Amino acid sequence: xxxxxxxxxxxxxxxxxxxxxxxxxxxxxxxxxxxxxxxxxxxxxxxxxxxxxxxxxxxxxxxxxxxxxxxxxxxxxxxxxxxxxxxxxxxxxxxxxxxxxxxxxxxxxxxxxxxxxxxxxxxxxxxxxxxxxxxxxxxxxxxxxxxxxxxxxxxxxxxxxxxxxxxxxxxxxxxxxxxxxxxxxxxxxxxxxxxxxxxxxxxxxxxxxxxxxxxxxxxxxxxxxxxxxxxxxxxxxxxxxxxxxxxxxxxxxxxxxxxxxxxxxxxxxxxxxxxxxxxxxxxxxxxxxxxxxxxxxxxxxxxxxxxxxxxxxxxxxxxxxxxxxxxxxxxxxxxxxxxxxxxxxxxxxxxxxxxxxxxxxxxxxxxxxxxxxxxxxxxxxxxxxxxxxxxxxxxxxxxxxxxxxxxxxxxxxxxxxxxxxxxxxxxxxxxxxxxxxxxxxxxxxxxxxxxxxxxxxxxxxxxxxxxxxxxxxxxxxxxxxxxxxxxxxxxxxxxxxxxxxxxxxxxxxxxxxxxxxxxxxxxxxxxxxxxxxxxxxxxxxxxxxxxxxxxxxxxxxxxxxxxxxxxxxxxxxxxxxxxxxxxxxxxxxxxxxxxxxxxxxxxxxxxxxxxxxxxxxxxxxxxxxxxxxxxxxxxxxxxxxxxxxxxxxxxxxxxxxxxxxxxxxxxxxxxxxxxxxxxxxxxxxxxxxxxxxxxxxxxxxxxxxxxxxxxxxxxxxxxxxxxxxxxxxxxxxxxxxxxxxxxxxxxxxxxxxxxxxxxxxxxxxxxxxxxxxxxxxxxxxxxxxxxxxxxxxxxxxxxxxxxxxxxxxxxxxxxxxxxxxxxxxxxxxxxxxxxxxxxxxxxxxxxxxxxxxxxxxxxxxxxxxxxxxxxxxxxxxxxxxxxxxxxxxxxxxxxxxxxxxxxxxxxxxxxxxxxxxxxxxxxxxxxxxxxxxxxxxxxxxxxxxxxxxxxxxxxxxxxxxxxxxxxxxxxxxxxxxxxxxxxxxxxxxxxxxxxxxxxxxxxxxxxxxxxxxxxxxxxxxxxxxxxxxxxxxxxxxxxxxxxxxxxxxxxxxxxxxxxxxxxxxxxxxxxxxxxxxxxxxxxxxxxxxx
Amino acid sequence: xxxxxxxxxxxxxxxxxxxxxxxxxxxxxxxxxxxxxxxxxxxxxxxxxxxxxxxxxxxxxxxxxxxxxxxxxxxxxxxxxxxxxxxxxxxxxxxxxxxxxxxxxxxxxxxxxxxxxxxxxxxxxxxxxxxxxxxxxxxxxxxxxxxxxxxxxxxxxxxxxxxxxxxxxxxxxxxxxxxxxxxxxxxxxxxxxxxxxxxxxxxxxxxxxxxxxxxxxxxxxxxxxxxxxxxxxxxxxxxxxxxxxxxxxxxxxxxxxxxxxxxxxxxxxxxxxxxxxxxxxxxxxxxxxxxxxxxxxxxxxxxxxxxxxxxxxxxxxxxxxxxxxxxxxxxxxxxxxxxxxxxxxxxxxxxxxxxxxxxxxxxxxxxxxxxxxxxxxxxxxxxxxxxxxxxxxxxxxxxxxxxxxxxxxxxxxxxxxxxxxxxxxxxxxxxxxxxxxxxxxxxxxxxxxxxxxxxxxxxxxxxxxxxxxxxxx
Lengths: 1090, 473
What we know:
The structure holds two protein chains of two kinds. By secondary structure, chain A is mainly β. Chain A has a 22-stranded antiparallel barrel. In chain A, strands 10-15-16-13-14 form a five-stranded mixed sheet. Chain A has a four-stranded antiparallel sheet with strand order 3-2-5-6. Mean pLDDT of chain A is 90; it is low at 1-13 and 16-32. Chain B starts with a helix and ends in a 19-residue tail after the last helix. The chains are: A mainly beta, B mainly alpha.
C-alpha cells in the first residue's frame, strides 16, 4: 500500500515538473518545429493515463491525459521519443516525419513481479523482503485454462506440490508447501483472499469418491495475483493457522479514472482419457484353464481354441431378462470367441468437455472503482452419466474514495457449484474395480433386469447382472457391473457460497493508516447419495439414500494500525499493530436410509427419506465451533536503503486449547534482507542486483476441536470384515465411553523454521537466480496416539511427535531474447524436500490412509507417508529368503515398502513471443517417488492384466509356485522369472498366491517407480489489435489461444497417470487402486476486450 | 474519529483475548457422563459383537468348519495370518466389553447401585476375558481396562482361569444378593433376572473348568448351569441393518459372502443327500438319527457351495446368535459327566440332549419329519455297534460321539475351536479335523499388532499361530 502511495506521489511530482518545463519552453518562445500527437495504450488496449513522453537528448516532455492522449512539440523530424510508464516497458520510437504516433506499451513482467503481497494482504517490494515468496500472475493462471484453480497452480511456484486425486470433474487436489509438517492436522496452506482467510475444506468421502477442494469455488478469471508465502517467517502473523504456509489471493479490482472495459472470454475444452490399463483378451473367464461363467478370475480357457459356434445354452430352467429385453440362459458350453473389452470400455467412457464463459466489467472514476464478473463453467466428464461439474460465479468488487483520508473497499462473490461424481477406488460398487476385473469374454450390456428361477417362476425384479452373476441369480452382484455404477448410483454435491469482505482505511495523517477489515465466508454444501437397490457393496445392497446439509461459516475481523516514517536520510521504518478475531462454525444435519420399502431407482428421481422402516433410518446432526483471537505486531526498519529488517510477533488464544490449561501462545518471526549490490564496491554492470536474506519464524496448528474432554457416545460396534451392531437399537439405548479420549491440557503444534536465501540478477536484470535453503522442525505434534487396547481405549489425543523438513528451492529466470518483435523467456524451478519423522514412539505406526493391505504411515526415522504393507522375507544380511521351489518367502511381519515422496520436482516454463503470437510451454517433472500399483496387482491376480496373456515354452524343467513341474518344451500360460534362486515359472498359482493381491499377496512386488515428466501445458495464442477492430467492432483486442494440457506424459507407470491418489485430498499418497482415470485436454479460448 | 474510538475499544478487547475463547470447547454433540443403565446396554451389545461375529467365523475356519475361498478368508484358510488380522478382535474384548463393564460398575456405584447389576457386569467381563484367554493364552487380566496403566501386565493363562473362577464366584454372590437389579430394559438379555444370570455364571464356570480339564468341577458347575433354553445367553437381533444377526449381515448383505463356505468335512456329517454329500460315509444319520432337519436349519446350498441358512435358519436376519447356551450346558454335562462319573452318566446325558433335539431343540425351522434323535443304548457303542463300526472301546466310542455332537452343535461358535484344540491329543476320539495346509492345526489367535507395538509387556517372542496355549500344552 505504502509502495503504491509513494509511486503515486512520484508521478504527481513528475506531472508538476513536466508541466513547469512545458510552460518554460513556451514562454521562452522557442520555435516549435513539429507537433506529434497520439494515444498510448497498454497491451490490453486500455489508455495509459499519465505516461511520460520525452524527446531524447532534449528537455522536452509531456504526459498523457485521461484518455491516454498526448501531444508534444519536438525539435524536428529526426527527434526520437521515449514512452514510459511505471510497470510498463519503455519504448523508443523515432518520429521520422510522422505527426501521429499511437503506442502500445507492454507490461514489464519483471517490474510487476517486484511487488508482492504479504500475509496481511499489504503490498511490499520483493527486493526488500527477507524471506522467499513466489508470485503467480493472472495471465499465468488464465493461460492454464484449467477449470479448477488449484490445478492451475501446478508447476508455477517452487516449493509447492499439487497432488491430484483423479481427473473427475470437480475433483480437488492436495496443496503442500515445503513438505508435510504435521501428521494428523491439516497440512495444507491457509488461503487468504483479499486479506480474509477462507475455507479450503475437503468434505465428504475421501477415497471412494474423488474429493473436492472448496478453493475451487473461486473463479480463476477473477484473480489478479497469487502469492505463495512458503516459510514460517512469511506466515507467522497467522500463528496457528499458518503451519502449512499461506496462499494470499488478490482479486481484480477496477482502477480509479479508468475507462470502462468489458472482457468476454469463452473457453471450450475437449477432455480425453490419458490412458487405459492393459487388459488381456486371449483367455476367458475361469480358473486353471477351464471356462467358468461365475469365476472371479480370467485364468480360463484360451478363447481362440473355442469352436466359434454359438454358445450352448440351457434354456429349460432359470434365465434373466435385461433392461432391453435380452434373454440370458445358463451357459453349458462356451463356444463364442467374441471379446468385449473395447465395447465394455466404450459403454463407459467418452470424450468429456467443458465450456466456460466469463464476462467481466471494470472501470472507475475519480472516487469509485468497480469490477464485476459473471462466469459459468459447465463440464461433462469422460465417464458417461452422473459425472459432471457446473460452477456459476458472480463477483462485485468496488472501491470508494470518500476523501484522500477515507477509503472503502468491498469485495463480494457468490459461487454455486454442483458436481456429480462416480464412485471409485476400493469399493465393490466402484467403477474401475468392476470394469477392470471383467473378463474379456463377458458382455456387460445387460446390467439390470428380472431373474426367473425357472420357466414357470415369478420374476425377481431389478436384479443386477454382473460378470460373476451373469444370470442375476443372487442378490449380491459381488462387483458392480460398470454400467450399474454409472447408471444406478448418484453422488451429488451442491454448494452455495458467499464470500464478502469490507475494508475501511482511514489515514488521519500522512504517516498513519487505520484499517478495519471484516470478512465472511459462508457456504452450504448439500450432499445427496443415492443407490438403486442391488448395488454390489453390502452397505448399499438394499438401496441407500443419504442426504446431508453442511453449513460452514467463517467470520473474520482484523483491526490494524500502521504507521511509517523516514527518521533520517538513511533510516526509515514502519510499525503495525493489529487485532484479529476469527470464528469458525460448522453445522451438519443429515439422514440416511437403507433397506428401501418400495423399489426406487436413480432414474425415478424419487428421493423419499420415508422409504424405509424407522429402524433403517439414521439421522446425524453435529455442531462445531472454534474461535481464535490474536494480537499481532510487525516492525520494519530500512537502513541506508540496503538493509531491511523485519520482526513480527503474534499472541493468540484459541478455544480449542480448552479452559483448564494455558490457552495463550506466542509466535515470533524475524527476517533480514541485505541488498549488497548497493555497496559502492559492488557496482558493476554484470551483477545488477544481489540480495542475501535470512529469516526465522514460528507457526503452529491448533488441536482439533472438542479434544479436551472425554465423551460418552452411542457406539456402533463393527464386526471386522462383516457388518456391525448399533448399540442404540438395543434396550433402553446406550451410551458408552468413546474409545478415543482427549487430554485436559493441549498445546499447539509448533513449527520452527530458519531459511537463508540469495537473490541475484545479472545483465540488467535479464537473468535472475534465486535460491533458498530451509530447515524446519515441528514439535508437539498432536495425534490420536494409539494405545494398547488392553487399557480399554484405542486412542488418546495428545501432543507427542516431532517432524523435520529441510529443502532447497531454486528459481531461475532468463530473458533469452528481448527485442521489439521477438522475446523469449525461460523460467526453471527446482524443489527438493527431505522429510523425517524424528520422534514417534518406537514401534508406533500411524496409518494415514490407503488400503488395508497397503497404506501410508508415519513412523520414526522415515519420511511421513511411507507405504506400508506385506513384503519379502530377508535374512539378517538382507538377502531374500527363498522357498524350496525358488520363490521368495513372504515376511509374516508387515513393513515399509517405499516412499511416495519425490526426491525432487521441477518445472520449466518458457514463453516465446513474436509480435502478436505467443507460444508457451510448461514442462513439469516429478522424480523418485514410489507408487503401489494396486490395480495392476489385482488385475494380475485375476488374470485380466495385459501381461498375463503371455504364453511361454519352458526351455528346461521348471517348478511353479505350488511345486508342480513344467517339463521342458511344455507351453504354459505365464512367464519364466528368476528371483535370484534360479528360473521358476510364474503361473496362475503364483499370481493367486504371493504374486498377486488376494490371499496374502506380497505387496512389495508391486511397488513401482511413480516418477513422471509431462508437458503440463502448451499454449499458442494470437492477439489481434487493430484500428479496424476498434472502429467496426469496438474491440480493443481479440485473443485466440489453443491450449493442450497433459498431452504427453513420460512415465514407466502403466495404466493411469501416476499423479493419482486413492485417498483423495489427503496426506496419504502413492496408491493406485482402481482410481478413476486422469484426463488430457485440448482447449480453445477466445477472449475479447471492448 | 469514530474509527479511532473503535480502534481504542478493540485495544481494550485485546486485554481480554482469552475470555473471548473460553467455554467454546465443550462438545455440545455428546455427553461427558452417562448413567450406568446405558453403559450396561452398550456393554452387552459389544459382548454380542465379540462373540457372534468374525471371531466366531475365524474360529470356525481354524476348527475346520468353514473354508475361505476368496480374499482375506482364503488366506485364513491357508493359515496365512498376520498379527494385524487380530487387531479388531482384541479391541472387541477390551475396548468393547471389558472397559464398558468396568465403567458400568463405576457408574452404578456412583448411583448407589450394586448387587445384581454388579454381578451382571462381572459375568460379562468374565465372558470376554475368558474368550480372550481361550484364544490368546496369557492376557492382561487384573490390570485390563484401566486407561491409567500404560503397560498392562500379562498374566499366565492358568492364573487367568483361576481369576475367572473367582470373578464368577463374586458375580454369583452379587447376583444372589437380590438387590440392585438394573432398571427395566437396560439388560437386553434377561431384563435383570438374577436367576438366569446365575445359571449363565455357573455354565461359564463349567466351561472354564472343562478348558482346564477339571472335569469333576465342570460337571458340578454344569448341574447348576443353564436349565432351560429360555435362560441361554443369546445375541438378540432385529430387522434393521445394524441389529441383524451378524452372520446374516456377513452371508446375506456384505460383499464378503462369496468368500466363505462351509467345509466339505463339516457339511458331509449333516448332509442327508448321498448325491450331493461329498463324503457320505461321514454322514451322522443312522437308524436312530436323521440330521436332515439340522442340515436345513444350519445351511442352504448356493452357487458357491454350502452356506449358512440366511433365509429361515441359523443365520436368518432375526435369528438369535449363540453365546452361552442351554445346549452347551447339556453337552458339558455329557462330556464332563462321562469323564468324571463314567459311561452311564455320559450316555444318559447325551440321550437327554438327543431327546431335547428330538423335540425340535434349537432347530427352529425344521420339519418334525426331518428330525430323529432316538436314544442310544450301551450296545450302540460296543465294538461293532451302530456308533462303533471301527472297533474302539465303548468308552472311546461314546466320548467320540459326544465330542462330535459338540462339534456339530457348536457350529459357528468359538467353543468349537476350543474343543478341537483341547482334544487334539486324544487321537482316537477327537473330531478328525485335518490341516488345510501343512501338517499342523491352528492353536491360537496371534497377539495383535496393536498390542505388540504399544504394550511393553506383550510376550516376546510372540507365540506362533501353531504354538498351543499353556492350557493345551
